[in-house]
Write a structure and sequence with these properties.
Blueprint: H1 3-26, H2 28-77, H3 95-103, H4 111-115, H5 121-137, H6 143-149, H7 154-165
Helix pairs in contact: 2-6, 3-5, 5-7, 6-7
Length: 173
C-alpha cells in the first residue's frame, strides 16, 4: 500500500467522522429517539396494566365457574340452591383469601411474584404452597383451572399436589 492510498483513506475516515459528529449535534435524530423511548415506556406501562387486569379477570372467572359448577351439582342432586350459596362460604373461601393466607408466611413475596414466569428459588416454595392450598381448600376447581389461575400448565399443579401427598413421612425415633 502506498503513502498516497493511506493518505486518501485517512482523509475519507476524517470526512465520515465529521459527518457523523454533525448529524449527532443537530439533535434531530436524538430528539426522535427520545420520543420513541418515551412512547415505548408508555406502551410498556399500558401493557403491564392490561396484564394485571387480565389476571384479575381470570381469577374472577375461575371463581364464577366454580360457583356455577357447584350450583349445577346441587341442582343435579336435587338440593335447592339458595342465593347465599352462590358466594363462597367458609367451606369454599375465595382464591385471593387462600393465597393471601399462604403468602403471609412468606414475607417479601407477592401475588405477582407467584404468577410470574420467574423461576427464582425464593419463589418456588410460596408458589407451590399457594397451589397446594387452593387445591385442598377448593376441591370444586379442576387442575386445568388452578393451572390457569397460576399461569401454569395443569401438569405442574398435578406434580405439586403429588409431590406433597407422596412425600415420605418423617419418622422420628
Amino acid at each position: 500500500m502506498t503513502n498516497s492510498e493511506v493518505a486518501r483513506q485517512q482523509q475519507h475516515y476524517r470526512a465520515v467522522r465529521e459527518r457523523l459528529v454533525r448529524a449527532g449535534s443537530r439533535g434531530g435524530r436524538s430528539a426522535a429517539m427520545a420520543e420513541l423511548h418515551a412512547e415505548v415506556k408508555e406502551l410498556t406501562a399500558e401493557n403491564a396494566a392490561k396484564a394485571r387486569r387480565i389476571a384479575t379477570l381470570e381469577t374472577d372467572l375461575a371463581d364464577a365457574e366454580a360457583r356455577l359448577l357447584a350450583q349445577a351439582k346441587a341442582l343435579l342432586t336435587g338440593r335447592r340452591v339458595a342465593e347465599t350459596d352462590a358466594e363462597p362460604t367458609d367451606d369454599r373461601p375465595a382464591i385471593d383469601t387462600i393465597v393471601a393466607d399462604v403468602l403471609a408466611d412468606f414475607p417479601g413475596v407477592s401475588w405477582e411474584d407467584v404468577i410470574s414466569v420467574r423461576r427464582e428459588r425464593r419463589l418456588v416454595k410460596p408458589r407451590h404452597a399457594c397451589m397446594r392450598a387452593v387445591y385442598e381448600k377448593r376441591p370444586d376447581l379442576s387442575l386445568p383451572r388452578i393451572g390457569r389461575i397460576f399461569r401454569r400448565d395443569h401438569t405442574t399443579v398435578l406434580a405439586v399436589v403429588k409431590s406433597t401427598s407422596e412425600a415420605p413421612a418423617d419418622i422420628s425415633d
